[in-house]
Write a structure and sequence with these properties.
The protein is α/β, with parallel strands linked by helices. It is 28% helix and 21% strand. The protein has helices at 38-45, 108-112, 128-140, 159-165, 182-205, and strands spanning 24-31, 54-56, 75-77, 81-86, 91-97, 117-122, 144-149, 174-177. Strands 4-5-1-6-7-8 form a 6-stranded mixed β-sheet, with helices on both faces. It has a two-stranded antiparallel sheet with strand order 2-3. Helix 4 links the parallel strand 7 and strand 8. The radius of gyration is 18 Å and the shape is globular.
Length: 206
């Protein structure tokens, strides 16, 4: 498309414009290991067409990227995913999905900058990956909730067993979700917002 001779660039699509009632916006990051469903969650819940930076997986990743449980996955996020959801007439969330492979984790620090909170997506087949993810959030002081993505072939465990296995403190919310479903992903974000509100109220009382 050639914009020569024009003083203006095309604006956002009508569907992408912020509600005129929006008064506040918050940055939320969605993190987790490789193939846990971060891109899927952003895509399922975003009210705008999500921005993705997926690239085709190549032979170069063999022996480097952990694709356990994702043998049919042909593309991977190399920078970030981005979407937006209006929670109330006044509050809008900007969603940033992080790359899952450890060789791209150096990008996380920039994505964590200014984040109000985070969703940690968990795959019960690879719980061990979650420890470093949560550790990085704790180092940065980013509050988070844990969402267990219910893959059809993944084992299911009682939530309290998972809380113990992940060594989560009693106050951190943990819930099951289906990242493919908008309502389920939205409920995870609402749980995060309620958790952040409770933390803010505790801080105000202390």
């Amino acid at each position: 498309m050639d914009f020569k001779g024009s003083d203006t660039l095309p604006g956002p699509r009508t569907a992408d414009k912020l509600p005129h009632t929006a008064e506040a916006a918050a940055k939320i990051v969605i993190v987790g290991g490789f193939g846990v469903g971060k891109t899927t969650m952003v895509g399922s819940v975003s009210e705008i067409k999500p921005l993705t930076t997926e690239e085709t997986m190549t032979q170069a990743g063999i022996g480097i990227d952990d694709n356990f449980g994702s043998d049919t996955k042909t593309a991977t996020t190399v920078a970030m995913d981005f979407g937006r959801i209006t929670i109330t007439e006044q509050l809008v969330l900007y969603l940033f999905g992080t790359p899952g492979q450890q060789r791209f984790w150096f990008l996380w620090n920039g994505l964590f900058e200014g984040a109000l909170g985070a969703v940690v997506l968990v795959d019960t087949r690879r719980l061990e990956v979650s420890f470093e993810v949560m550790g990085r959030l704790e180092e940065r002081g980013v509050p988070f909730v844990v969402a267990v993505n219910t893959f059809p072939d993944a084992p299911r465990y009682p939530i309290e067993e998972l809380r113990t296995a992940l060594d989560l403190s009693p106050d951190i919310p943990i819930m099951e979700c289906d990242a493919r479903r908008r309502a389920s992903s939205r409920d995870v974000l609402l749980t995060l917002m309620r958790f952040l509100h409770s933390l803010a109220m505790q801080g105000a009382l202390n």
